[in-house]
Every structure is written in C-alpha cells, then in structure tokens.
Amino acid sequence: MRSGVRDLPLWAYLPAVVGMALVVLPPLAMVEKTPWHDFTSLVGSESSRQALELSLKTAALSTLLCLLLGVPMAMVFAAHDGVVMRIARSLVLLPLVLPPVVGGLALLYTFGRFGLIGKHLSAWGIEIGFTTAAVVLAQTFVALPFLVISVEGALRTTGTRYQQVAATLGASPTRVLWRITVPLLIPSLLAGAVLSFARALGEFGATITFAGNRPGITQTAPLAIYVQQIDDPNQALPLSMVLVAISLVVVVAVHGRARRRRGVAAI
Description:
By secondary structure, the protein is mostly helical. It contains twelve helices and no strands. It has helices at about 15-35, 40-45, 45-80, 85-90, 100-110, 120-125, 130-160, 160-170, 175-200, 205-210, 220-230, 235-265. α9 packs antiparallel against α12 (about 235-265). The protein is globular.
C-alpha cells in the first residue's frame, strides 16, 4: 500500500463512497433504463445518425484546429512568463470556467452577422453564424484550453536542456522544434487531442447559442438528445449511451497513459 494512504482514517471512506456513488449511479441508471431491444433502430434512425456523424466530423475538425493553434500557443506560454503573458494565458483558459451559453453569445457577437468580425465577413458574403462552421468554432472555443494545458504542462516538466544542447551544436530553432521538442511532446499531444475531441463532441451550450439546432447542418448529437428527450426520454437514451461509451473510452485512455508515465518515472 502506498505511503500515506495506509494512514487514511476510516471516516474518510464514507464521503469517498458517497461521492463515487453520486458520479457512478447516474450512468448505471441510464444503462438500466435504456431500451436495448430498440437500441440499434433508435441509434440508426436518420436523425440520430445525422447528428452523430455531424458531431464526429465537426469534433475531428475542431481537434485539428486545436492542434494547429494550441501547440504554438502552449509553446509561447511555456517560453515566457511575464505579466502580459500571464494575462493572455488567463484569457485563453477562460472557456474552462465560462458558462457555455455565455461563450456562445461571445462568439455570436464576434462572428455573427452583426458581430465585431462577422459584419465585415458578411460584407464579403461570408456567413458563419448558424452554419456548420459555427459548430466547429464553438467546439474549438471550448476545447482549445484542454490542449493548451496538456502541452504547456509537458513543456514545463521536460524543461529546455535538450533544446539548449542542440542549439549549442548549431541546430536552428526550427530544427530543434521538429527534431527534439515535438517528439518529446507526442504523449501529451495525444492526451490533449483526445481530451479536446471529447470536449468538442459533448459541447452543447455554445453550439446551440451560436450555431442553432438545424438538423443535418448544426444539430450535433447533444442537441439531438435534447430534442429527443423532450418528446420521449427513452428515445434519447440509446444515443446518450453512445456518447457515454465514447467518453468512457477517452477517460480510460488518458488515465491509462498517466499510469504508464508514473510507472516509467518510478523505474
């Protein structure tokens, strides 16, 4: 048994069990209530299929955007620690605690038809609000901080000694980036990308506010579940279980990677 854990007082187990029950029982209740005999037909219905396909496609695109934008951002944050950079970092991480509906409003007033940037795009005939592109932007807005945190944490942990050695040997900054920094970041990149994908896949508030709920265009799986449960909650359960399964896979994958890293560090 680990040091410190064996000295845990017995009373601590009671709130721990209550907390676990609070989190574990609701998914188990969904499993028990799901109409498994109609599972395939309900998940395979046109509305559910369209919503799930749209969610997977837009979540994949938003994850790609998170990688393209988040990795350089994390590198900048890890390399500099001034007041301005700390303020910028706080603003970038704001979506982690910002209510999703508020984030959707912020996106609407930025990229909507009459928004700060959207009004200029509209003049060129480019509309973003209430389109599939709006779904991708909303998902990227809420998922980007997860990638930034994962990569920045890895950069601060590994340090810069390898990069400094390569630089003294005459390697250019670009060569150091691609030959040393990026390979060191691959495990954290994968974990951050998986977390970002899962967060994008489950996004609801910012999406419905900024993109709307148009079937086949902006209605993602969470929005379809919301509509289905209004008419018949049992019809929403199969698609909900699909998202639960995907989320469970993400949790197991990220947790397993963390355990492997701790095991290697212990060796």
